[in-house]
Amino acid sequence: MEIRRGNIFESETQALINPVNIEGVMGKGLAYQFKKKYPDNFEKYKQACLEKKIDIGKDLIYTEEKNKIIINFPTKRSWRENSKIEYIEIGLKKLEELLKKLEIESVSLPPIGAGNGKLDWNNVKKEIEKFDEKVSKDVNIIVYEPTLEETELNKGHYLIAYTLIKCKEMKLKNEITDLVLQKLIYLGDKKNYFKFRKDLKGPFSKLINIQYQKLKEYTKINNKKLSELEKELLKSKITDSLQEEKNNIKKAIRLYINMKDFYLISSEEKKKIEDKIELLATIIFILKNESSSITIEEGYEKLKNWNKRKEKKYSQEDIEEMFCFLEKEEILKRDIFNKYFIN
Fold first, then answer.
1. CA 8/CA 264 separation, integer angstroms
2. CA–CA separation, 115 and 119 (whole Å)
3. d(CA 168, CA 128)
4. Count of alpha carbons within 13 Å of 16, Cβ hemisphere only?
5. What is the residue-level pLDDT of the chain in tens, covering all 343 positions?
6. CB–CB of 175/273 below 8 Å?
7. How far is Cα 80 from Cα 278, in angstroms, rounded to an integer?
């Protein structure tokens, strides 16, 4: 088995493996590239899906096009779902059968199930190695591993990694839920790099979710810890001129810790932590985007108008208490008309 990194479409092998779902959709990732490069294969695959001829455990559908044999390998049922390692195991057995049937002498495999399928590449690789032991006498196997370039790590990935590392250093790792991570980064993102918008549970960034997932994929693929990744990124241009952002993240984490102390919240009370950090971030968002200064009563009205969920969850007393905390932390100031504004 030969390991490569690069473009699978440049491979000299007879056959290429195309990772697919069983719904007839090649909307993103490598499958989308196969769709564009081998349109006849896509049409055959799509028809096979309509006729229920393609499924996990069924014979693999293939097409001969442009001097290549394109083999469609189901790694998931729905394009919306993640892959499962058992799908890879079953698929490799069917691939072994097809290679013998067609007398194929060489085949290239991408990291099946480890990209959009979200499987751990190390586990997938082990299954491919078992497969190689069975067929290597007759077939030349080339495996294209995932690469750093495919995950396109950038400033956003670094800031997320930095936030997680600092939380771990402050012994907060076990209480950092997805919601808490979103709000911490929002409080530290003074330049709105992550494009936060108004959402059900306060300010929310879709970009954070996407880049956090990419970050997890990269650390799994390359078997790296976040601390190792940070050092790697420090050697690149990604972290140029980020000292201000890093300081803001540290201030956001300190504010979060002080909030817990103010409300006497323990690390185990994750629901209460989420409720309070959501309220805090929502108030800051309102002052930044809706009204530059508000009274407690006006703040409560704006919170009620945000959505029904917040109206039920928070009282005017909750708002008053949070304003008191933020004033104590010198995040907010108050004018002679009892209107609060960001310091």
1. 55
2. 7
3. 35
4. 25
5. 899 888 899 999 999 999 999 999 988 778 888 999 999 999 999 999 999 999 999 999 999 999 999 999 999 999 888 899 999 999 999 999 999 999 999 999 999 998 778 888 889 999 999 999 999 888 999 999 876 554 467 888 889 999 999 999 999 999 999 999 999 999 999 999 999 999 999 999 999 999 998 888 777 656 667 777 777 666 554 555 688 999 999 999 999 999 999 999 999 999 999 999 999 999 999 999 999 999 999 999 999 999 999 999 999 999 999 999 999 999 999 999 999 999 9
6. yes
7. 28
- Rounded distance between C-alpha atoms, residue 249 and residue 231, angstroms: 18
Bridging pattern class, strands 293-294 and 202-204: unpaired
Tokens in use for 209? 């979710």
List the domains of the chain with CATH numbers: 2-146 (3.40.220.10), 155-342 (no CATH)
Structure tokens at 260: 């817990």
